Amino acid sequence: MAQTVVSINHLQKFFGKFQALKDVTFDVNPGEVFGFIGPNGAGKSTTIRVLLGILKASGGQATIFNEDVWQQAVAIHNRIAYVPGDVYLWPNLTGGEMIDFLLKLNHQKRTAKTDELIQEFELDTKKKSRSYSKGNRQKVALIAALSTDADLYIFDEPTSGLDPLMEEVFQKHVLALKHQGKSVLLSSHILSEVERMCDRIGIIRAGEIVETGTLDQMRQLTRTQVVVQTKQELAGIETLAGVHTFKADEQIANKAVFAVNTAQIGAVMAELVKREIVTLQTTPPTLEDLFIRYYNTEGTEGHEK
């Protein structure tokens, strides 16, 4: 098996007495887009700052390319591209000058691909950075990062401030990186973005990883929504294993809405067939369903993203 690109084991980080990261463990494999999701305050950005060597871990271990992220930060940075959620630019430089500067910092030069990205992201590179909106500042960093030939791309809420059309452009280029065999760590709270692009995801809650796996594996942990009407009475369906929140329609006979665990959906459907289905509508589980499952209880702690 190919060596992991990013490896994090039981990572911890304290800020004084406050523990921002309690137990973070996950890997990013070669050619994989790994989605790192959680709301503001869960610990996403703190984890990424440790990976970048900006913060020193209080416990556990983190490596990129099998190198310690703190001790070998300079060598690691030569092989990665990074876009934060809040991009700050030199106000007196134009967008084009900033892109050239960011590329030079990574020992890269402007190429035809850079110019194509500028057109796709519809960025006016002649304007001074001080006049840019948040979305345009994000575009500058994204163009520079996507122009870079790196082995690992780290995006921390990269589409913050972008309109939906520009989000589509970003997603297209991330999928292109994946097809090139590049590795991507994508931190996001936009679940549709993660669902479209990521091979695996890790959910962080209050500084701890609460679930990791492929989207198919995750969907096994969620419930399918069912709206059904039958010829015969639905009595007894609510007692079947895996059925939740059963609610009979007060206006239409033998019609009900309920949720069913993915593992039991076959058995439940068999029972519905016995009652002679008239209409049936099922809504498959989404990543959002899983996300809500972990965040519909108490709020997360902390102040970091």
TrEMBL record:
GO molecular function, a single term: ATP binding
Family annotation (PROSITE patterns): ABC_TRANSPORTER_1, ABC_TRANSPORTER_2
Keyword Nucleotide-binding assigned: yes
Alphabetically ordered keywords of this record: ATP-binding, Nucleotide-binding, Transport
InterPro entries: AAA+_ATPase, ABC_transporter-like_ATP-bd, ABC_transporter-like_CS, ABC_transporter_ATP-binding, P-loop_NTPase
Gene3D superfamilies registered for this protein in UniProt: P-loop containing nucleotide triphosphate hydrolases
The keyword ATP-binding belongs to this UniProt entry's keyword annotation: yes
Location of the ABC transporter domain: 6-231
Family indicated by similarity: Belongs to the ABC transporter superfamily.
Protein name: ABC transporter ATP-binding protein
Organism this protein belongs to: Secundilactobacillus silagincola
